């Protein structure tokens, strides 16, 4: 028969080793002496070996009992570590948070926020997936991620969206372009120039080479690409103009590109945080969501 080790009996053996008495050991863990003796006898019977040497003046562990006591010390240390680990999950200082974000969200300070958050909560692992806004909503809806960052125009009825960022839209043009010196330009004025467009499915596709809100004609699309660096590279080479969010300093926009603000009322790009209100977030998810909302404030 395989012996059944219970934690209380193992602790009892350690206390016998410390006190030299079953009765005193029993008292320290709130057992009667008879109950303590019964536990030890049952374990000895299961193991088929003596764990104690019993004498009128007290009890001492046998070599086998000492081996059990040493192992028990390690088990208790591991259990204490387990309790600490689980406490981290309970208070939100440990865990995993899964994020899906569109490209604009990835570029909107998310990396810096994640770096600060990870420094503050090193026990929380953040997993990030880049996707189109539609795919972000799908990932939140099917539970494969905990929260998403998507364009405000992307909607899903049963998901909740929260304000995150709103960035002005600008026209990226090469230096020397006839619009480069303008303080602002209306989108319709750009339609006579070739546009470098984000590929279909991108939230910015509606502004890059397709009908902009309130414009009667689509722009002439010369090239479609998937990334902002590719957009800037082509604009820098003089192959067209592009509607993009106003680039922060860390985008490393080529020096020969000018960003001309769009004067249209609609010319801003809003990102929103997306969560499933039917799912109770883990403490770690709640902490990161709070940090994202704090950045948005």
UniProtKB/TrEMBL annotation:
Residue span, HTH lysR-type domain: 1-62
Keywords from the named record: DNA-binding, Transcription, Transcription regulation
Signal peptide interval: none
One Pfam family this sequence matches: HTH_1
Similarity remark: Belongs to the LysR transcriptional regulatory family.
PANTHER family recorded: HTH-TYPE TRANSCRIPTIONAL REGULATOR YBHD, LYSR FAMILY TRANSCRIPTIONAL REGULATOR
Name of the protein in its database record: DNA-binding transcriptional LysR family regulator
UniProt source species: Pigmentiphaga kullae
